[in-house]
């Protein structure tokens, strides 16, 4: 079979077509899709045509942009709708908004906005899709100053399960506007989104690395230090077991390190003074903190850009007391053998706790901390990774307050939202997709 050029402006691939293997592959190589066909959309009309085709042919629709959030493989009863071709980005500097296609990544939008001294609120990694991260909430390296990505959305253009194209904002389609800001993307396919930008040309911060052997001292110092910070400072910490691969910078390659992240919208002088006590917790190996243009926001977390087979899970915590730090060290600290690549804690609060102007479905506003663990499903450790990832979430469960959609890693989403928000999301899904056409990476609990 050859690749079929359909009346669509995009491309269709079926099993056996030369373009099919690449089209079913995304960032997470552990999730291998095997759909009946793939539609690489180039326009909102393509998306509408694909949705109608799927409905008429008894197929379900799975949407994928980058595949960073892929959690379960789409099977032969599925049409895989790839949105990477919808990557137009325009910035209105007067309105301080960006209108971006469903395929745009955070790095693309950040670069366009930076030319106007404006900043996109998104996640930590420039390669992640903006729409995917935003529909799931969106916690970035400045979340305590700038809040959730979802809170800034002004409108969406979508295709609903009936194949119709609709404009969604607070006044038109308020149920979809609520659900698409924090409830995941399962109620419609977003073709583009307009979101508010922040006047922010730069920030102060970056990464600091400590030797892994100092993890107990650094983690306990961080746990006591972070709550003393003003909300203009956002910080997180990760225990990293970095692979011996050329993509990893030489001093860190193959090392177990503690990665302290700090980012502030305040002055460099204030930031340096606030950071100083943390630098005495142990001698840092590398300190890359300083004033940075916002276009370098990805340097704070330094997430890997290359696709890899990964499994992850996370949860939200009310508190992160000494006992929780010890529990984390017992499963990911220097005294244990573990296949984990990352065990991370982010401090939340400040703007992440503030309600948005128009209520949305973002859960976890009451959480103080976010925990996340990830391992690579590669030999010889692949079989140990699921238990290790689960072990981190279990270890901190006494302090658990819920789950964040973007860090759920395919766990049941029952505690990802307050009960009334979950009930409203379930109702919107029943109303808008009564036949269950859409098959999101992470479904709502029934
Ligand atoms: C390295 C890495 C770093 C990350 N860092 C952060 C972070 O700092 N903060 C944070 O909040 N999250 C973070 N995430 C999680 C990430 O935001 C989610 O996995 C998000 O869903 C990825 O979106 P995507 O479009 O890139 O991925 P995809 O896998 O392409 O999409 C994920 C899901 O989003 C939905 N979706 C995507 N596009 C659409 C659309 N157009 N219409 C409707 N639904 C859609 C679909 O359900 C889809 O299955 C990170 C993930 C990785 C792998």
From TrEMBL:
The alphabetized UniProt keywords are: FAD, Flavoprotein, Oxidoreductase
Q: What cofactor is needed? A: FAD
Q: Which residues form a coiled coil?
A: none
Q: Which GO MF term does the entry hold, naming one? A: FAD binding
Q: Which residues form the FAD-binding PCMH-type domain?
A: 31-200
Q: Which InterPro entries match?
A: FAD-bd_PCMH (IPR016166), FAD-bd_PCMH-like_sf (IPR036318), FAD-bd_PCMH_sub1 (IPR016167), FAD-bd_PCMH_sub2 (IPR016169), FAD-linked_Oxidoreductase (IPR050416), Oxid_FAD_bind_N (IPR006094)
Taxonomically, the superkingdom here is Bacteria
Return the similarity comment: Belongs to the oxygen-dependent FAD-linked oxidoreductase family.
Q: What is this protein called?
A: FAD-binding PCMH-type domain-containing protein
The root-end lineage is: Bacteria, Bacillati, Actinomycetota, Actinomycetes, Geodermatophilales
């Amino acid at each position: 079979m050859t690749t079929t050029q359909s009346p669509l402006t995009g491309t269709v691939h079926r099993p056996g077509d030369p373009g099919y293997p690449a089209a079913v592959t995304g960032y997470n190589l552990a999730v291998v899709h095997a759909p009946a066909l793939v539609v690489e959309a180039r326009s909102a009309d393509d998306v509408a045509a694909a949705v109608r085709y799927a409905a008429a042919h008894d197929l379900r629709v799975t949407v994928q942009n980058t595949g960073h959030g892929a959690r379960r493989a789409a099977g032969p009863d599925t049409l895989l709708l790839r949105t990477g071709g919808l990557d137009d980005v325009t910035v209105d500097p007067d309105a301080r908004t960006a209108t971006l296609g469903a395929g745009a990544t955070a790095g693309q939008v950040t670069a366009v906005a930076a030319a106007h001294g404006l900043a996109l609120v998104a996640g930590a990694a420039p390669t992640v899709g903006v729409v995917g991260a935003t529909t799931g909430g969106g916690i970035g390296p400045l979340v305590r100053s700038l809040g959730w990505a979802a809170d800034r959305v002004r409108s969406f253009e979508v295709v609903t399960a009936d194949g119709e194209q609709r404009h969604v904002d607070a006044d038109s389609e308020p149920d979809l506007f609520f659900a698409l800001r924090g409830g995941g993307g399962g109620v419609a396919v977003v073709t583009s989104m307009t979101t508010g930008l922040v006047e922010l040309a730069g920030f102060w911060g970056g990464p600091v690395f400590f030797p892994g052997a100092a993890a107990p001292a650094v983690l306990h110092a961080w746990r006591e230090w972070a709550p003393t910070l003003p909300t203009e400072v956002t910080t997180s910490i990760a225990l990293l077991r970095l692979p011996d691969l050329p993509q990893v910078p030489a001093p860190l390659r193959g090392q177990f390190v503690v990665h302290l992240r700090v980012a502030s919208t305040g002055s460099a002088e204030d930031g340096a003074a606030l950071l100083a006590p943390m630098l005495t917790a142990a001698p840092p190996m590398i300190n890359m903190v300083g004033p940075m243009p916002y276009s370098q926001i990805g340097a704070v977390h330094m997430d890997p850009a290359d696709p890899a087979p990964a499994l992850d899970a996370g949860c939200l915590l009310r508190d992160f007391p000494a006992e929780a730090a010890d529990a984390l060290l017992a499963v990911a600290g220097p005294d244990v053998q573990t296949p984990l690549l990352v065990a991370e804690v982010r401090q939340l609060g400040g703007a992440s706790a503030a309600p948005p102007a128009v209520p949305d479905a973002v859960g976890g506003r009451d959480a103080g901390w976010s925990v996340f663990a990830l391992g690579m499903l590669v030999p010889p450790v692949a079989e140990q990774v699921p238990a290790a990832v689960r072990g981190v979430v279990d270890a901190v469960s006494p302090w658990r307050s819920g789950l964040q959609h973007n860090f759920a890693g395919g766990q049941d989403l029952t505690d990802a939202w307050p009960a009334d928000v979950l009930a409203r999301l379930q109702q919107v899904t029943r109303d808008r997709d009564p036949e269950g056409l859409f098959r999101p990476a992470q479904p709502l609990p029934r």
